[in-house]
Design a protein that fits this description.
The chain is mainly α. 78% of the residues lie in helices and 2% in strands. 48% of the residues are buried.
């Protein structure tokens, strides 16, 4: 059972990560027509409607009770569906064309950020094989993103504020991913739905305030319909499917292990760009193989640890 759960959790996290990798090139097209704030809000507002219908059919009205945990749900929902969603697309939009690559690069920071958060909050040190796997995967992803050209970092320094927004957004998603551990007794669908609804409510307050103050224009129906295909993709795959797959996978693998799969985000971004005519280099191929190797290595060590401890999903930490 342990191996089956490990395999299923890995597949779910992989599906989610690859979906998010594909979303950045699609979002780049949409952001040329609509403001990133409204793009972010409309996306998860529609996802929320679908989730509400699914939860109502599967678990009934009782599943919508907050059970006195509204503050925590609002916090985690805001981190994911407001902070991550708005910051990541605002940063991408501010950078223009380079923002597509930069946004996918920043996703690779998630494993490092999760380790630091756990280190600070839990006073625990991850096992060496996890740290090594993350470093290998990070190096591989950097090879893909930079294409072996270190001048990328010089160019990136010209976009400090957008990069800061991307970083803040990524921190928000890490907090959300780790927050699911506080709701283990809830179904994945229930946690996803309630956090999405509450996070979207916060997003609505923000876009309404920005529109009332005249800082952000309200998009016309013509504008919204002009991105109907891009929005349909963003809602159904990297929105709905990826959200449910990610929360389920993280629950099976634990945040520290599952979040390693986020390294596939920039890899997938480049694959999509390759289909659009982009030529893949030796550096990008080598980086992709390094990321895959890191994931296989981490899972192999994890299976060995599970086999020795007979505990499924327990974080493999060394207490300090």
């Amino acid at each position: 059972m342990a191996k089956k759960q490990l395999l299923l959790g890995s597949i779910l996290c992989l599906i989610a990560s690859m979906s998010w990798g594909a979303m950045f090139p699609v979002a780049h097209i949409a952001l040329q027509k609509i403001d990133p704030f409204y793009f972010s809000f409309i996306r998860y507002f529609l996802v929320g409607i679908i989730l509400v219908v699914m939860l109502l059919i599967k678990e009934g009205k009782a599943a919508f009770k907050l059970e006195g945990r509204g503050i925590a749900l609002t916090l985690f929902g805001t981190m994911a569906f407001t902070v991550y969603n708005m910051c990541i697309f605002l940063g991408q939009d501010m950078m223009g064309a380079p923002g597509t690559v930069a946004a996918s690069i920043m996703e690779v920071m998630m494993p490092m950020i999760s380790i630091m958060i756990l280190w600070i909050t839990k006073k625990s040190m991850p096992k060496k094989y996890m740290l090594t796997s993350i470093v290998i995967a990070l190096f591989g992803a950097l090879l893909v993103i930079t294409n072996g050209n270190l001048s990328f970092f010089t160019t990136a320094s010209q976009h400090l504020f957008p990069l800061f927004l991307l970083f803040v957004g990524v921190v928000g998603w890490v907090v959300y991913s780790m927050g699911g551990a506080q709701f283990k007794e809830w179904s994945i669908l229930r946690y996803s739905t309630l956090t999405c609804l509450l996070g979207s409510a916060v997003s609505f307050v923000i876009v309404a305030t920005l529109s009332i103050t005249g800082l952000v224009p309200v998009p016309s129906l013509e504008t919204v319909f002009s991105i109907k295909y891009e929005m349909s993709f963003m809602v159904l795959l990297p929105g709905l499917a990826a959200l449910l797959c990610w929360n389920a996978g993280i629950k099976m693998l634990t945040p520290l292990n599952g979040i390693l799969f986020i390294n596939f985000v920039p890899i997938t971004t480049f694959i999509v760009m390759a289909f659009q005519g982009y030529q893949i280099s030796v550096y990008e191929l080598a980086g992709t193989l390094l990321v895959i190797f890191a994931l296989l290595r981490n899972n192999a060590y994890q299976r060995g640890s599970i086999g020795k401890t007979s505990v499924v999903g327990k974080p493999q930490f060394n207490q300090t």
